[in-house]
Amino acid sequence: MSEKKMRGGALLAHAFKEKGVEHVFTLAGGFCNPALEGFMECQIPVINCPHEQVAGHLADGHTRITRKPTICLVGPEGFANAVPAMLEAWGERTPVIFVTGSSTLKRQGAGGFKEIDDVAIAAPLTKYSVQITDGNRISEFVERAWRTATSGYPGPVHLSLPVDIMFSSFPKDAGREERPFERHDKPVPRAWPDPQQLSSVLDVIKGAKRPVLIGGHGVWWARGEADLGRAGETLRLPIFNVPYHTKMLGEECDAYMGLADFHQYHPSKPAINEADVVIMVGCRLDNQMNFGNPPFIQPGTKLICVNGSHEELDYNFGADLQLLSDPTAFLEALCRLDNRWDEWLDLQKSRRTDWVQEWSNHIAAETETDLAEGRKMHPLQLALDVQAGMNDGDWLVFDGGNTHFWNEIATNIAAARGRVLGGILHPGNYSLLGVGVSFALSAKHINRDKTVVLVTGDGAFLSGGLSIEACFQENIPIVVVVDNNGGLDCISQQQERLFSNGQHFATDFRDIPFHAMFEGLGGFGELVTRREDFASALDRAIASGKTACVNVKCRGVISPIVAATSDKRDKASIE
Questions:
Q1: Largest distance between two CA atoms of the chain
Q2: How far is 142 from 150, CA to CA, in rounded Å?
Q3: 382 and 306 fall within a common domain
Q4: Domain count within the chain
Q5: Which of 56, 218, 226, 420 could form a disulfide with 392, with the two C-beta atoms 3.0–4.6 Å apart?
Q6: Domain shared by 109 and 164, yes or no
Q7: 441 falls within a domain
Q8: 137, 171, 205 — which closes off a domain?
Q9: Is the same domain home to 165 and 199?
Q10: What is the pLDDT of residues 232-291, one digit of tens each?
């Protein structure tokens, strides 16, 4: 064993360097200083954030885009602030590694400085939460955490490093005399399908007349989206994307239809209701899929769930057929079938064309009325105008309640009009507001040559807008378009349908000058109250080269999914 020593925090940093970590996010605190010194020695970039929740969301955003673990480093009290980011990462199964500099091990249980049971708090929100109690095992626990985060069905993990171990010195090669001797990042083990079970599943698909393919998180984390698209185009199989998750396919894929969500994308309802076989790959039978039950998937439909881990399959016990298989292995086998369902796919494409035209006609009529009556802009029109002002390859982020849902609809319409975005990010399964700025910064940090536009509700911006300071600090300019309807419109509209007096309560905001806030920070800001002024304002914001805000006064319009949520008679992919 080497006689040269280094602090526990530096050992931690060097272990992550060996794994190939490229991004660390923190709010610098005294408990974490040895680790920060180690990251500095390893020349791993560290972004200091204005809040620990921001650090967590930035780590989540970077990991979603790169599909490689990123580090969120916080102190004990900062850990509590990072818990919402854990929740968001857990919902999307993002393999973020949360590291806590925790209270001293020596006095554990005696009321040490800033002592909290961070391991217990993180346990329900992570795949693995553990305290390192021996500095000689730091690299071992990094190895365990990394493998847990990236293998099977991925997800966030948590390592707690007590401050006395963080600051104490240990041999540089501590723990390296035991296997594994090589601890760099290695390929993740993949589950290969049992040939007999695979054959049974393929036989059912071959006999189908109206099959539908739904792709989910497992496809994304297995890097199998190209295989998914290839299967749909080769077999002429309509493909749908689970709601809330990262959009896996662009409209250049001829078989991609949109979200498997009856409210956000209406043509998915007849497709899934009429299907005789639904093949869900990398999905979970959770609330988004109505747990596999009617009226989402009909009783007479054969439901097949293909998942790359036993953990996923445990959620999908309601499926008629289950297959343990890496998504790419299954999709490769699927592509080898001789079947083609041209007429069935053409029907879905026709339905999609009709849906786009119906919405286009509807919003054109709404906008004409807005102009004639002097009303504020419709949020769907704003979402469409944003994408009209972007270039192909640019990144779009959206955040909020109704703002999120209207932008989901707009992406389908804009794509049908020819817009090809570089990528889309938004809140995940838990619909956590306030992630938008962090996700937009992540997208711009990784795609410096592209414009990144965030469309955010005013409530969502108030939830996480402090993170905008990181854009100024790091000189990573994004454009923020605020869909400003003066309150928590998504909630107020539900209240107006629920409350006996037909009113809403405790959901209004004052008139907040978001654009002036950006100007005060050194950025670009502009207020827009009329639709005809928006396009030029967006152009000026992009051309400024600064972190910019276009504050747009819009009217509150209930989105289809919020209307369905508040009407218990119309249920499908919601509880």
A1: 81
A2: 12
A3: no
A4: 3
A5: 420
A6: yes
A7: yes
A8: 171
A9: no
A10: 999 999 999 998 777 788 878 999 999 999 888 999 999 999 999 999 999 999 888 889
Residue with tokens 């769930």: 305
Distance from C-alpha of 563 to C-alpha of 551, rounded to nearest angstrom: 26
417 and 513 share a domain?
yes
CA distance 35 to 442: 22
| CB atoms inside a 10 Å sphere around CB 210 | 18
Q: What is the pLDDT of residues 540-565, one digit of tens each?
A: 999 999 999 999 999 988 888 777 77
Q: What is the DSSP string of 179-213?
A: S-S--S--PPP-PPPPHHHHHHHHHHHHT-SSEEE
In the numeric block, which tokens belong to residue 216? 């989910």
* Structure letter (DSSP) for residue 282: S
Instruction: Note whether 220 and 166 are same-domain residues.
Output: no
Q: Check if the beta carbon of residue 314 is closer than 8 Å to that of residue 209.
A: no
Separation CA 431–CA 300 (nearest Å):
32
Q: What is the pLDDT of residues 25-51, one digit of tens each?
A: 999 888 889 999 999 999 999 999 999
CA distance 268 to 170: 58
- Sign, CA dihedral 292-298-299-304, equals negative
Give pLDDT, residue 567: 66
- What is the rounded distance in angstroms from the CA atom of residue 51 to the CA atom of residue 67? 24
The residue length of the chain stands at: 575
CA distances from 504 to 314, 399, 487 (A): 41, 22, 11
Question: Which of 348, 365, 393 is where one domain is finished?
Answer: 348
Q: Are residues 519 and 470 part of one domain?
A: yes
| Average pLDDT of the chain, as a whole number | 92
Structure-block tokens of residue 541: 């914001």
Q: Could you tell me if residue 186 is inside a domain?
A: no
One domain, residues 289 and 390? no
Q: Which residues contact 297 (CB under 8 A, 6 or more apart)?
A: 272, 275, 278, 289, 290, 303
Query: Residue type at 465?
Result: G
Task: Identify the domain containing residue 402 by its residue range.
Answer: 376-565
SS3 assignment, position 345: helix
Q: What are the structure tokens assigned to 298, written together?
A: 């009909």
pTM for the model: 0.93
Question: Are the C-beta atoms of residues 443 and 424 closer than 8 Å to each other?
Answer: no
Residue 19: phi, psi to the nearest 5?
Answer: -80, -15
Tens of pLDDT, residue by residue over 326-381, are: 999 999 999 999 999 999 999 999 999 999 999 999 999 999 999 999 999 999 99
In angstroms, the CA 116 to CA 169 distance is: 24
* Residues contacting residue 20 through CB under 8 Å, at least 6 positions apart: 68, 184, 185
What is the CATH number for 477?
3.40.50.970
| Two tokens, residue 208 | 């189908």
* pLDDT at res. 575: 52
Tokens at 225, concatenated: 């989206």
Same domain, 298 and 421: no
- CATH number of the domain encompassing residue 326: 3.40.50.1220
Assess if residue 94 is contained within a domain.
yes
In a domain, 182, yes or no: no
Separation of alpha carbons 357 and 174, rounded Å:
65
